[in-house]
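Long-time lurker. I teach an intro course on protein structure, and each term I like to show students one example going from raw sequence to a predicted 3D structure in token notation. This year I'd like something fresh instead of my usual example. Would anyone be willing to generate the tokens for the chain below so I can use it in lecture? Attribution to the forum is fine with me.
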Amino acid sequence: MVEFTSAQLYGWLAAFLWPFFRILALIGTAPLFGESTIPRRAKIALSAMIAMVVSPTIAQLPAAPVYSFDGLLIILNEVGIGLATGFVMRLVFATVQQAGEIIGLQMGLSFASFFDRAAGGQTMVLSRFLNVVAVLLFLALDGHLMMLGALVDSFNGLPIGGTPLSAGGAMAVARAGGMVFASGLLLALPMIAALLTLNLAMGILNRASPQLSIFAVGFPVTLSGGFLVLMLVMPQMGTYMQHMIEAGLESIGTVLGQFGR
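-- Reply from a regular --
Happy to contribute to a lecture. Here you go:
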């Protein structure tokens, strides 16, 4: 007959819950895993399965009970680490969506929008299309596995404990947020240059032939030219998206390293 004491039961429960909070915070905010279209029960179940696999590999566990004040501080630390990790990776997809918004405005597709449940508001069709491309590329590069692997490795670099996190990690997250505007503009720059040249040509044509109704032909020409240029630059966009995903994974390591200082 198998017997165990209440102390052993509390120990097993704590060994499961400490990594569970960090993993659940990542699953709730990370791209692909944290989409609102995925049921919350599925996110909790996935976090629980990963925590059960990871918990036997953790060497150091805090002695504080989970239900104590010290345990609450540890939980806040774990949730902060998971949120920062998922948020840094989500910034990559925010960059792609920002580029899609810029390109859509230049092409005249600002009216082509729909309610995106994942974003919680109106999203341009082109922005959503580029986001789907980025998600597929993320899966093809095994970025989701690398992200989970970085979090699992963080239990060695950032042991579970009540030590407050360093402010350097928050600053690293803030610096990573700067790439949303810079990288998004660089991703959309070829389309901006091509459409600007097309608009200049239409303006010169209007001056050379005033009887031509530029407003009647300008929109279909800009839209058709935008789709043509988009078709030509999509292979290069995929390469740049791959670079951004790799940079996002590197930023996760930087943020976790700064938290441990």
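Some talking points for your students: The longest strand covers residues 113-116. The mean pLDDT is 80.
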